[in-house]
Amino acid sequence: MIRDVHPGASDVPDEQRCPKCGTDGLPVLIGLADESAVEAAAAGELISGGCMRLIDGNTWGCSSGHEWAADDQAWTQAVNRALAGRPRCRGCGGATRRVVYPRALAYLSETVGLAEEIAAGEAEMAADDGPPDVYSIRICRDCRTVAA
Ligand SMILES: [Zn+2]
Ligand SMILES: [Zn+2]
């Protein structure tokens, strides 16, 4: 891929930079924002788009409000990166990850992508059954505090 190089240019691929103003793009997350998405948006790592974005098909945006469509795989990676470890620990501010109880494996919706999450360090299997009716919790990777 050919990149135009100029002073101050970042190392992000062209398609992830705004075609109008050239600033680095952020992935636009479609749909209702959960706590993790709100936090990532506040940290400037993604744009929380709401439901209307489904209509125009634009998946990237810049800080000046321009929007454009680009590669889906890069978008998925960027969103995963922005949401990784979120929501952050309320105690120490560290990254959190899911602890999944074995009973969750009986429910498909809880296990889709679980292997990938575990491989990425975003989830772990609990060694015990945990509290009744609980399928997964989030804990801090650093202080092991259970995230609210
Ligand atoms: Zn722009
Ligand atoms: Zn912590």
Describe this entry's structure for a reader:
The chain has 5 helices and 7 strands, in the order βαβαββαβααββ. It is α/β, with parallel strands linked by helices. Strand 1, helix 1 (35-42) and strand 2 (47-50) form a beta-alpha-beta unit. It is elongated, with a radius of gyration of 18 Å. 19% of the residues are buried. The mean pLDDT is 85. Bound molecules: zinc ion (ZN) (2 copies). One zinc ion (ZN) binds at residues 89, 91-92, 94, 140, 142-143, 145. Residues 18, 20-21, 23, 62, 64, 66 line the site of one zinc ion.
Count of DSSP H/I helices: 5
* Biggest beta sheet summary: 4 strands, mixed
Which structural class fits the helix and strand makeup? alpha/beta
Over the alpha carbons, how many angstroms does the gyration radius reach?
18 Å
* Extended strand count: 7
Strand content: 15-25%
Molecular shape: elongated
Briefly summarize what is shown.
With 148 residues, the protein is α/β, with parallel strands linked by helices. It has helices at residues 35-42, 53-56, 72-83, 108-111, 114-119; strands at 26-30, 47-50, 60-61, 67-68, 96-100, 123-125, 136-140.
Could you name the key traits of this structure?
148 residues; 23% helix; elongated; alpha/beta; three-stranded mixed sheet; four-stranded mixed sheet; single chain; binds zinc ion; 7 strands
